[in-house]
């Protein structure tokens, strides 16, 4: 059944907590750089901006609310895009650290990893010949022995303290089929209500592989668990899989996520000079497929968001 709204939502994940400064000179690190790239991505067509923070001194990921506060309100003032704050952070952050700024900001959206998992890019360290900062190499190599924790209790806590208490809705990040069943558990518990916005994530070491058949399988499982009319899905293809899987998602009636958090490249061997260039590329592809791009106002309606006027920043 065709929905009333079938425009494509573009999410841009601006910097993340996985890549490090030595991997690309274009990765935004300071509050000013994150702000500038986020605003440019919104102007290029991203209706949702997924945001992490970095220590401006050396680019390492940080959960510090004071750093977030240096760019999030400025992005809100400069664009109408939906601001989506991570609750994932990094594998090295505690739950309290990951929630410190979201609980203060009370945004329209937050990301929410739907389970504990191995999550790593440690093989990438072998390809880096020179590191800009002392923290980077042990950080990347150390991912081999790190687990991202989000227990059922952790997830329930986030859903209650952000969702129920403040009206924040979620980008449910599902890195494997089991994460869809975890989400279904919270629907059954009454902690999550439709419309759901589910991010299918492919190609992260520790999660489901970036095979087209896996996208079809995830879609089928989600249909079975939630009913197609009760959720919208988006696709994140990590690294070189970014554009191909995003295109496949759109053809299947889904939405797309791009950004330097997920891939540092624009095409094979070519570093993306900015987040906006990735947004422009996927937008060109979508428009060539005769698909329309959703505006922030339309996204707020599609996902049942509380509106920019109800946030804490």
TrEMBL record:
InterPro entries: Aldolase_TIM, BKACE. Gene3D superfamilies: Aldolase class I. It comes from the Bacteria. Keywords: Metal-binding, Transferase, Zinc. Its cofactor is Zn(2+). One of its GO terms (molecular function) is 3-keto-5-aminohexanoate cleavage activity. PANTHER family: 3-KETO-5-AMINOHEXANOATE CLEAVAGE ENZYME, 3-KETO-5-AMINOHEXANOATE CLEAVAGE ENZYME-RELATED. This is 3-keto-5-aminohexanoate cleavage enzyme. It comes from Castellaniella defragrans (strain DSM 12143 / CCUG 39792 / 65Phen) (Alcaligenes defragrans). The lineage of its organism: Bacteria, Pseudomonadati, Pseudomonadota, Betaproteobacteria, Burkholderiales.
